[in-house]
Design goal:
Blueprint (H helix, E strand, L loop, with lengths): L6 H11 L10 H7 L11 H9 L8 H23 L24 H15 L1 H7 L2 H15 L4 H8 L5 H40 L4
Helix pairs in contact: 1-4, 2-5, 7-9
Amino acid sequence: MRSKLTKHDEKALIRFLTPRRASGALDLMEIRGFLLLACCPETIRPSEWLPLGVGEAPEYSSMEEAQAVLESLMIIYNQINGRVFRRQPRLPKECRLLPQTMANFQDGAALHRWSSGFAKASAWLQDVWQDALSEEDYAEYLAIHAVLGAPGQTAYLEAFENAPVTSSEEEHAKLCLRMIPKAMMSLAVLGRGLRESTFQEAQDSSSPHH
C-alpha cells in the first residue's frame, strides 16, 4: 500500500464523500480528526470505524472506486497511527490556523471541521477510555477532550455568536488553540501507553517461561 495520498487521491475522496454528507459521512478534514482514534487504548478495526467515516452502507460506483476510497482512508489512518506510535501527533498540514482567533471556531474553518471529527470519535469511544483508565487518568482524558473538541463544538461557537466576544473569552479561545499540540501529545501518550502495556502483559502471559 502507498504511504502518501496524491492530490488526485484527495480530490477523488472528496468527490466520494461530499454527496454522502446527508447520510452521515464526514468530510476529509473531519475524517482526519476522527482518525485520531488511533490513540485509543484498544485497537479499533477498520470495519468498526469505516461506517462512521463514510456513512452506513455507502454505495460505490464500481469496485475500483471502493478500492480507491478504502485505500485512501487506510493511508490516512496509517499516517496518523504512525505519528501517534512515534509520539509525534500533529494537526494535518491542511489544517492551518486562521489569524483571527474566533474564525477557527466557525463552521467551515479547517480546525472546526477537524475538531468536530475528533469529537465524534471521542464520544463514540468514551466508554472504552473510561473502562481502560484510572479515575485520575480519565479526568486527564476529559481535559484533553475539552481542548481538542472545543473548536468543533456548536455550543461553544453559539456562545460567541449570541453575544459580543469579551477579551477574557477571546483569551480563553487563544489558550485553547495554544494547548492543542500538547493535548494531542498527551492523548497519544495516554492511549498508546496503555495499549503497549496491555500488549506486553499479553506477551508475558503467553511466554513459556512465565
